[in-house]
């Protein structure tokens, strides 16, 4: 059986988070999107949305989708990033692909 949760649309914190999750879909400033996402993650957590309910909240999914889109995420890029961070952690330089917006 699949577990479900209810996102209360009457809560102002959730309304604002949803409005910003919609607004950032047209954004291209990664730092601003991450900052906004962080602010709403904390606000949702303070509104007692936590654990699996937070990870699967529609607002969180929308922000993660935008971050994935901005980074042009796909399986190959993700695997290349993990290979690169292993090298960076060992103090090695890495070359990586830059895909313009």
Quick tags:
0% strand; 101 residues
Structural overview:
- The chain is mainly alpha-helical and 101 residues long.
- Helices cover 61% and strands 0% of the residues.
- Helix 1 packs antiparallel against helix 2, helix 1 packs parallel to helix 4 and helix 2 packs antiparallel against helix 4.
Amino-to-carboxy terminus distance: 41 Å
| Low-confidence region ranges | none
Topology order in helix (H) and strand (E) letters: HHHHH
Number of strands: 0
Supply the helix-strand structural class. mainly alpha
Name the average pLDDT: 95
Query: Biggest β-sheet, characterized?
Result: none
Strand content: under 5%
What kind of oligomer do you see?
single chain
Tell the overall outline: elongated
Write the layout of secondary structure elements.
Blueprint: H1 12-23, H2 30-46, H3 51-55, H4 58-70, H5 75-89
Helix pairs in contact: 1-2, 1-4, 2-4
Short note summarizing the structure:
This protein has 101 residues and is mainly α. It contains five helices and no strands.
């Amino acid at each position: 059986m699949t577990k479900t949760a209810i996102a209360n649309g009457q809560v102002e914190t959730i309304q604002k988070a949803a409005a910003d999750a919609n607004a950032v879909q047209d954004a291209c400033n990664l730092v601003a999107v991450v900052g906004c996402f962080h602010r709403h993650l904390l606000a949702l957590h303070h509104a007692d949305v936590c654990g699996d309910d937070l990870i699967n909240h529609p607002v969180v999914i929308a922000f993660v989708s935008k971050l994935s889109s901005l980074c042009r995420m796909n399986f190959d890029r993700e695997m290349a990033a993990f290979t690169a961070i292993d090298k960076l952690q060992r103090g090695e330089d890495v070359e990586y692909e830059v895909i313009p917006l």
